[in-house]
Design goal:
The structure is a single chain. This protein is α/β, with parallel strands linked by helices and 290 residues long. It folds into 2 domains: 159 residues, NAD(P)-binding Rossmann-like Domain (Rossmann fold, 3-Layer(aba) Sandwich); 121 residues, N-(1-d-carboxylethyl)-l-norvaline Dehydrogenase, domain 2 (Orthogonal Bundle), CATH 1.10.1040. Helices cover 55% and strands 13% of the residues. It is built from 13 helices and 9 strands. Strands 1, 2, 3, 4, 5, 6, 7, 8 and 9 form a 9-stranded mixed sheet that branches. Helix 8 packs across helix 12. It is globular, with a radius of gyration of 20 Å. The termini are far apart.
Length: 290
């Protein structure tokens, strides 16, 4: 079985490297060549253009946004070149509308399509510790399950409509961003009264909020560890906007999503575009004059 991988950002490169380390045959393509060469050095084969990967058995893609996904998968001929037995697993966080469009484009061509967005940062991806949210035709998912199992510690099926997995991922990222924002504001409050961030967060993340997300991001806030970015602020802003778009489509009020959007926009507008999204805490501190 040959696996193709398109999109070698931090997450994609980590996942493709994991597959290579597990002994799988992997062909890769990325718009910028540096990541490709890094994986070729580890045993991957390089594709000269995306359409070449339409001939593999399983294609994984992890592109930055809707526009990049449409440009590479559709406009650059991946689907047109794909053989009918191909199964495409889209690991990216795309909009609900894009997920529906991709499902229909694959269906017309008799190509398997599984939405498989992931929860986890690059270090978790490299260690095979991702949580994979999965949706698509059950028979297609069953055929691809071994690939899903190879990249994550657990898969979470949410139905036969691919967009279901994407809305779960979007909602999950909204919740993480909310946690970061509330911790940032709470730290600004306690710091203004003389309590150190690490002391406050040590209490809260080991009592009321003793969960992985709070512990991870609380530790980063306490250490003011904003770079290098495991998940950059512009990607987080994209995902919050996807949540707002999905909510707007079904008349679902999400007032706090607007707060998150504005915090991320402020972070980016004030020079933090290369920061991790946890740097929303820096915005909260600056607003408080800290």
């Amino acid at each position: 079985m040959e696996i193709g991988f398109i999109g070698l950002g931090q997450m994609g490169k980590a996942i493709a490297g994991l597959l290579l380390g597990s002994g799988h045959k992997v062909r890769v393509w990325n718009r910028s060549p540096e990541a490709v060469q890094e994986l070729v050095a580890k045993g991957a084969q390089a594709a000269a253009k995306p359409a070449e990967l339409g001939k593999v058995d399983f294609l994984l893609s992890m592109l930055a946004n809707d526009a990049a996904t449409r440009s590479v998968i559709v406009d650059e001929g991946v689907l047109d070149a794909a053989h009918p037995g191909l199964i495409h697993l889209n690991l990216a966080t795309v909009s609900v509308g894009m997920a529906k469009e991709l499902a229909e484009l694959h269906r017309r061509r008799n190509i398997g399509y599984v939405a498989a967005p992931v929860f986890g940062r690059p270090d978790a991806a490299a260690a095979g510790k991702l949580n994979v949210v999965v949706a698509g035709d059950p028979a297609t998912v069953a055929k691809a399950q071994w690939v899903i199992d190879a990249i994550g510690q657990k898969s979470w099926p949410v139905g036969d409509r691919p967009e279901s997995a994407n809305v779960v991922k979007i909602a999950g990222n909204f919740m993480i961003a909310s946690a970061i924002e509330t911790m940032g504001e709470a730290v600004a409050l306690t710091r203004s009264h003389g309590v150190k961030a690490d002391a406050f967060l040590d209490i809260l993340t080991n009592t009321l909020f003793a969960s992985p997300a709070y512990k991870l991001y609380g530790g980063m806030i306490a250490a003011e560890k904003y770079t290098p970015a495991g998940f950059a602020a512009p990607l987080a802003l994209k995902d919050v906007r996807l949540a707002l778009s999905a909510a707007d489509a079904n008349n679902v009020p999400m007032p706090f999503a607007n707060v998150l959007r504005d915090s991320l926009m402020e972070l980016i507008a004030t020079g933090g575009g290369d920061n991790d999204w946890v740097a929303m805490a820096k915005v909260a501190a600056r607003r408080a004059g800290l």
